Amino acid sequence: MADTYSQIATDSRRKVLDLIYKAQTSHIGSNFSCAEIMAVIFGEMDLSKDVFILSAGWKAAMLYYHLHRLGKITDAELDSYCQPGSKFIGLTEPVIPEIKIAGGSMGLGLPGAVGIALAKKISKQEGRVFVLMSDGEMAIGTTWESALIAKHHKLDNLVVIVDNNGFQAMGETRDVLDVAPIDDKWRSFGWEVSLVDGHNADVLKDSMNLPTYRNWPFIVLASTTKGKGVSFMEDNNLYHYKQLNESEYNNAKHELWEK
User: Fold this and answer.
1) Domain of 224: which CATH number?
2) What is the residue range of 112's domain?
3) Cis omega (within 30 of 0) for bond into 211
4) How far is 235 from 256, CA to CA, in rounded Å?
5) Can you give the pLDDT of all 259 residues of the chain as single tens digits?
6) Are the C-beta atoms of 56 and 137 separated by less than 8 Å?
7) DSSP secondary structure, the chain, as one string
């Protein structure tokens, strides 16, 4: 299955490249860093009972790709990404049932995910709540308030994955506000913590399915490379906001199709 997830991740980058270039929007580096994470999440989830929250809503193109793969949005809807009149914009909005919470402003997704997970526990509903966050969100107050609430209510049905690519909009995350070591901080809040290679599908799959024995919520800190898959985008924060020109698009497409 790991090879399948790796191929899905490559395919997702190819499609997201086309969508973002056609729309002349941004955030391609962030979309690329989470490709393996999203491939594994949507491979391991059961949408009949599980819930996914994209807190890092600027990775919307990658989410739309996977919703399309699962038949939740049409070809036309996917290809309408950020086109005039489309409801599928560059930040996630709850425009279909599978998108429960708007994402974009940092720190909004985890509070909502905690509420959904708590509601599931109270009503004895099956299923887990997965939430994908950015490492920049580790500096947000609502993140830590939500972490305490999740531990207090023993939300072992909550799985948080952090796309830990080391960058946020205005620079390296450690330079904007250093909260390292992140793993120790989460443990101090009473969470189970797993540190993994965020581009290794085998490891991601195993980490997301680790059993919890102490009724604790669980977080996967996935180390990733911003812009992964295209050499000139990797660890280059220019591609957080930059629109791609034709030359960059063609070069990126060449690299991705060589894989």
Assistant:
1) 3.40.50.970
2) 2-258
3) no
4) 17
5) 445 999 999 999 999 999 999 999 999 999 999 999 999 999 999 999 999 999 999 999 999 999 999 999 999 999 999 999 999 999 999 999 999 999 988 999 999 999 999 999 999 999 999 999 999 999 999 999 999 999 999 999 999 999 999 998 888 888 888 888 999 999 999 999 999 999 999 999 999 887 655 688 999 999 999 999 999 999 999 999 999 999 999 999 999 998 7
6) yes
7) -HHHHHHHHHHHHHHHHHHHHHHT---HHHHHHTHHHHHHHHHH--TTT-EEEESSGGGHHHHHHHHHHTTSS-HHHHHTTT-TT-S--SS----STT--S---STTSHHHHHHHHHHHHHHTT----EEEEEEGGGGG-HHHHHHHHHHHHTT-TTEEEEEEE-SEETTEEHHHH-----HHHHHHHTT-EEEEEETT-HHHHHHHHT---SSS--EEEEEE--TTTTSTTTTT-GGGGTPPP-HHHHHHHHHHHHH-
Identity of the residue numbered 153: H
124 φψ region: left (φ > 0), alpha (ψ -120 to 50), beta (else): left
pTM: 0.95
Is the CB of residue 24 less than 8 Å from the CB of residue 243?
A: yes
Instruction: Please give the structure tokens belonging to residue 155.
Output: 């939300």
Q: How many residues does the chain have?
A: 259
What domain count does the chain have?
A: 1
